[in-house]
Write a structure and sequence with these properties.
Order of helices and strands: HHHHHHHH
Shape: globular
Radius of gyration: 18 Å
Structural class: mainly alpha
Number of helices: 8
Number of strands: 0
Largest sheet: none
Distance between the termini: 29 Å
Strand content: under 5%
Length: 192
């Protein structure tokens, strides 16, 4: 159930006929159901209402905004059916990866699973850094864990900042020297 539009009305045939060329019919059907205001576009708010985690919580605003921005080719703050279809493929890929790292099939990623995920993705990160991420992104509980939406958000941000770091680390030594403004520029252009 997690990683895709909620069950119920998000199945069936797309109202009004066939899917546009290059768009999966199921994605077109979901698009019609998610486009609550019938504008022909999906907003962050509409996307948030359509995507759920394994615990039935809706995806968080930050992740929805990151994904909308990724597939919004016109920089308008919303996506059309083509962007939505690409976004669903993107979520499906992350969901598969998430399930691979969710070794106990609990529907969330624990501290140990997060550490293993980072290692298998090629990141050499300390347990302290993983603990920091859990403190920042996990729901408050005695056994904090990461839901799919936060996993996608963390991985997207980690990938983006790593790419920015590698651009500056031309000698591949693992250290860079940055001015404060260079650092801010990296953050603003990659994260906002």
């Amino acid at each position: 159930p997690y990683g895709g539009p909620q069950p119920g009305p998000y199945g069936g045939a797309a109202p009004g006929g066939d899917a546009p060329p290059g768009v999966d019919p199921e994605a077109a059907s979901w698009f019609q159901a998610v486009d609550a205001d019938r504008s022909g576009y999906i907003s962050v708010k509409e996307l948030k209402q359509a995507l759920v985690n394994s615990n039935w919580s809706t995806f968080n605003d930050e992740t929805c905004l990151l994904m909308i921005n990724m597939f919004d080719k016109t920089r308008s703050g919303h996506i059309d059916v083509y962007g939505f279809s690409a976004l669903l493929r993107f979520i499906h890929q992350w969901k598969n990866l998430f399930q691979q790292y969710d070794r106990d099939q609990s529907g969330s990623i624990s501290f140990n699973e997060l550490q293993q995920a980072f290692s298998q993705m090629g990141y050499n990160l300390s347990p302290q850094f993983s603990q920091l991420l859990l403190a920042r992104y996990a729901q408050r509980s005695s056994n904090p864990s990461i839901q799919l939406d936060r996993f996608i958000q963390i991985c997207m941000q980690l990938q983006s900042t790593t790419d920015a770091f590698r651009e500056k680390d031309t000698g591949l030594v693992g250290n860079v020297r940055l001015s404060y403004e260079d650092f801010l520029t990296m953050v603003v252009t990659r994260m906002m």
